[in-house]
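To: structure desk
From: M.T.
Subject: fold request, one chain
Message: Could you run this one when you get a chance? Sequence is below, nothing fancy, just the single chain.
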Amino acid sequence: MERKAPRVRQRLTRPRSWLSALPCCLLLWVGSALSGAETQREIVLLKSADTPLYARVDNSLRGQLRGDAIHIHSRTTDTLAQAPIKADLVVSIGSEATRIALQQSPPPPLLAILIPAQAFDRLTNDSDHPAAIRVGTLSALYLEQPLERQLQLAQLIKPEARNLGTAVGPLSAANLHALQSASARFNLDLHAVAITPDDNPVKRLTPVIERSDIFLAQPDRKLFNRGLARWLLYITARARIPLIGFSPALVNAGAIAGVYSSPDSVAKESAEWIRRWYASPDGTLPPPAYPRLFELSTNPSAARSLRLNIADPETLKQQLINSAQP
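Reply: Done. Structure tokens follow.
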């Protein structure tokens, strides 16, 4: 009788491709995981305080960086006593967070945001930090708008203006020379008054405002408080002089228009800087700079009271963007 081939032999010779490919799949998966671990960067968002403004910037920045190979931790300055900062990059939100981050030994690579230029310059005015700026491990995206953008807005609001008034305080006084140079480029004669906390703001502001065609408010936390803002709004309205503000609150209170950074625009531009840092072969940051992105608002009621016909905010913003292009 003819014998049949053992069935076990047929099972042994049957292809087992999925089992033979398993070791290769495991190796590829492990290699991919290791590669991802090597390229992921650790970032600490250090907030000056746990306030709604800083929280909004924090949340918006996290949203902008979602999907990037970046692991983000959020901390406030009061937590640093328990554990020091350990990260590839620290993004300090506000002046106090920047001051605390610079006190770390050694200072970590640092990008300061939501900080005035004068405050950043003051905090980094020592022998170590300027060198750090040169090698690209310390930088800032300033809070306030560049002077050219503010002056362009002033000319769009009142093209015939020839005399520009302003007031400077302890911090903004450092910008007076730059403002004089920028005003000259726009064919504006600058009339500036320095105000101290002991001065009578009405006596100091009134002569300058009366000589001005338009008045530019300077963002100076040691100069501008609620009382001074009220007097400035009152005197400019009485003299029928348009006031250019630096915040939506000042525009809502009576300034005719203003350019400023919003939490979302700060977060969006900061995310662009972080991606440039991430893509840089040597991990360098862009040099300190004024923001490219900005928001603009107007006060139609103030414009009507001054009998000025101004464009809507979107049109003015586009005109500013176009004028900045080479």
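Reply (cont.): DSSP finds 14 helices and eleven strands in the chain. Let me know if you need anything else for the meeting.
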